[in-house]
Amino acid sequence: MVNEAIREFAAHGFDSQARLEQWLARIETSMSATLMPAHELQKRLAQHLTQIFERTVRRPSALMKRHPGVPMFKLQQLAPRLRAELNRRILASVSLITLDQKASRQRALQRLAGWATSIPAGGSKAVDKAQEGELIRRSISGLPHRERVVIIDQGHKLVAAIHDIIAVDGGAIAYIWRHIKQGPPAYDSRPEHVERDGRIFLLRGSWAMKRGFVKLDGHQYYDEVTAVAEEPFCSCWVEPVYGLSELPASMLTLAGKAELARVRKLTA
Predict the structure, then answer these.
(1) CA-CA distance, 221 to 200, in Å (whole number)?
(2) Cβ distance 170 to 98 under 8 Å?
């Protein structure tokens, strides 16, 4: 259908707004038919995120390895909050992907309309119909692929949210950023995320901060940067820090160093 529209406008040019609107309506109908219906989208999203949730939460040994400072009973107490986060993510993800579908269709139609209205009435033999047709067709055929990519991205966000809830409620005092270059083929690692790899970010309001045990010492608070998985297709993760001994000595205040010495003496 796109090729047919390209040929018609190349032959006749933009000589009628009615002709353009007719073609845009036909192509929009065709695009909508290739996209996942809302009820099916919600079903698949729920299945995908629930599977990720079960893999992440139902493996106590893996959670304990990721969060060594959190006792098992605390993980059990957090189960309702984690389930609520799953349900919240499912609803939010459906809305997001629905909006993204609409915006992607609009961009494709705008591209076609922009090209068609640039052709003078009477048509033009100078138009590269094959090239332009391929560009517009790609923008349309890529819509279902983008659906899948966004669904995968929502999975990354769910996992990040789960670990953040466990870490913050479990008493983490800082995060160490870990960069992983993953994502769809067109995804390029963000330079600022690469630069954060291995950097320590203090958690504002932690028990260690409230007791005056830690200081920034040139570092940043985690809430001063975009969180892992917050930006589209980011699959970085953070390693939670639960104890003062896991921080560089320069990030401990005098009170923090005294507390660390006291704890070490008790456990010696």
Answers:
(1) 9
(2) no
For 55, the token pair is 């893999």
For tokens 């009477």, name the residue: 122
Contact between 2 and 27 under an 8 Å Cβ cutoff? The reply is yes
Tokens of 65: 């390895």
Q: 134 phi and psi, to 5 degrees? A: -65, -40
Angstrom distance (rounded) from CA 238 to CA 45: 25
Q: What is the pLDDT of residues 84-104, one digit of tens each?
A: 999 988 888 888 777 877 887
Tokens of 143: 């819509």
State pLDDT tens for residues 28-51: 887 777 777 777 877 888 899 999
- Per DSSP, helices labelled H in 117-186 are 129-141, 143-169
How is residue 173 annotated by DSSP? -
Name the residue with tokens 């705008």: 110
Other C-beta atoms lying within 10 Å of the C-beta of residue 124: 15
DSSP designation for 189: -
Pairing of strands 220-221, 200-202: parallel
- Whole-prediction pTM value? 0.76
Give the 3-state secondary structure of residue 11.
helix
